[in-house]
Design brief:
The protein is about 65% helix and about 0% strand. It has about 280 residues and is mostly helical. It has a domain of about 180 residues.
Length: about 280
């Protein structure tokens, strides 16, 4: 008997359903893998360029794959801030080396939800591999590249965090209304909870990607110090990485820029990265 056949008649229906979901998921993954053979197209300044495949077809397939995995999927329209959250977040979750098509494909499959967002991690070692493979006229240029990438990331952290805080506040209001008003349909209730889940997963993914970038930059610096030593450039790169680390810590401390009076009081922990929200029993039909 094949793997998809039920052994016991009592479990035949459940087995058929599980088999059907498995086959459907496999079909989705095969179809979208061929679509995502290249990374998300970009235009000027490496900004995402509109694409029917990446903006329409893959997200549709990804939503179906997410449902088959049992992940929440909301049909709600995005707010302006929710769109901005995803646009700004993409610049921080994609591979720092734009020619990294392997990491770029992984990120694109995760961005469109074909794969779980947590699978969109870009291996830190890839950054040094691509850095070494590119032809620079000067060995110092590789150090400058790391410093430039780290500094560029640092400038993007707080703008993203500002939007993330606004989205979190809107989600808190959404959950408050959901808990205080009678919801007429199960779809509305599920859609609201799913959108909050999606927003928070996006924010956590960006936080994870930033930590991986810091590791990638540090590993690249260590590799260059051995391969092409340049004492003059090491200080510059270390400063850029420390600046990025500082911005990430501020973001994790609820985007507060610290205590201007140098108080030792600890920064408040951001609820973006912890907790879920207001819970209540599902709608009874």
């Amino acid at each position: 008997m094949g793997k998809c056949e039920a052994v016991h008649s009592g479990s035949a229906q459940g087995g058929a359903q599980r088999c059907g979901r498995g086959l459907a998921l496999a079909a989705v993954l095969l179809a979208t893998a061929s679509l995502a053979a290249c990374v998300r197209p970009t235009g000027d300044f490496d900004r995402a360029r509109p694409s029917v495949i990446h903006d329409d077809l893959m997200p549709r397939a990804g939503n179906e794959a997410a449902r088959l995995r049992g992940d929440p999927v909301s049909k709600f329209n995005y707010t302006n801030d929710e769109k901005l959250l995803r646009n700004r977040g993409w610049t921080l979750i994609r591979p720092p080396w734009t020619k990294d098509w392997i990491g770029g494909t992984m990120v694109e499959l995760s961005r469109t939800r074909v794969l779980p967002e947590t699978e969109g991690r870009v291996p830190p070692d890839l950054y040094l591999i691509y850095l070494r493979s590119d032809k620079f006229r000067s060995s110092d240029a590789r150090y400058d590249k790391i410093a430039s990438d780290a500094s560029g990331d640092a400038e993007l952290v707080m703008p993203f965090c500002t939007v993330a805080v606004r989205v979190e506040k809107a989600d808190d209001e959404r959950l408050r209304v959901l808990g205080n008003k009678a919801v007429t349909t199960q779809e509305t209730y599920d859609g609201a909870k799913a959108r909050v889940w999606e927003n928070r997963v996006m924010t956590k993914w960006v936080a994870q990607a930033l930590r991986y970038r810091i590791i990638a930059y540090k590993k690249a610096l260590e590799g260059l110090e051995i391969e092409t030593p340049s004492r003059d450039r090491v200080w510059k790169v270390n400063n850029a990485i420390r600046e990025l680390e500082g911005q990430v810590k501020l973001a994790e401390a609820s985007c507060e820029r610290g205590n201007r009076y140098s108080s030792d009081a600890p920064a408040r922990k951001s609820r973006i990265y912890t907790g879920w929200g207001v819970e209540r029993a599902p709608v009874v039909k």
